[in-house]
Amino acid sequence: YPYHGAVFVGLNERGLPKYANIRSTKGDFKGEAAGSDKHYSFRIPAQDSTEVHLFEAAIDLLSYATMEYMAGRDWHRDHLLSLAGVFKTKRTDVVPIALERFLELHPDVKCLHLHLDNDEIGRCAADGIASALGSKYTVLNEPPAFGKDMNDLLIHNLHRRKEWER
Fold it and tell me: What are the respective helix, strand and coil percentages of the chain, to the nearest 5?
């Protein structure tokens, strides 16, 4: 593979691949495999959780799981869902299709944790999700405490940890 990348695969209810996100590990290349269906974006489901943590990208989902693991918490306790990207819209009540499908398949979910990016698009998407779903779900807006996204926060925390260990 010429981009030295990672592929994040989303599966349907029968375990068949329906979505693939490709991300370079040596550059800025990002994309989706032809025919990908965002209804089935990359996710890590939990057994019996009523909560789902939402991220713009699979790498942010995995960064969050890594930070939970590093903190000694059970990163499997809640559902984790990548939204396969978000976009800016003039409407104030837009629900990404990955989230819409996930909520249909998991009717027990009661709480949404929004870990979207600290940029205009991420903040607008968080507001749109809260506006659209805030009357039906508890929506907690939890952007990263440092940097643009959860991956930036993980890298920041790893650097701080290295400094502390010295």
Answer: 35, 20, 45
Residue 13's φ and ψ, nearest 5 degrees, are -65, -25
Q: Which two tokens stand for residue 58?
A: 């699979």
One-letter amino acid of 53: H
H helices within 71-145, ranges in order? 97-105, 120-133
**DSSP class of 76:** T
How many H-runs (helices) and E-runs (strands) does the chain carry?
4, 8
pLDDT band of residue 163 (cuts 50, 70, 90) is confident
pTM of the full structure: 0.90
Amino acid of residue 83: L
Q: How confident is the model at residue 2 (pLDDT cuts 50, 70, 90)?
A: low
Is there a contact between 39 and 82 (Cβ–Cβ < 8 Å)? no
Q: Measured in Å, how far apart are the chain's first and last C-alpha atoms?
A: 37
Q: Give the tokens for residue 117.
A: 């990016």
pLDDT value of residue 83: 95
Q: How many CA atoms lie less than 13 Å away from 113 in the CB half-sphere?
A: 15
Contact 71, 12 (CB under 8 A): no
Q: Residue 31 forms beta bridges with which residues?
A: 22
Q: What is the pLDDT of residues 25-61, one digit of tens each?
A: 887 888 888 999 999 999 999 999 999 999 999 999 9
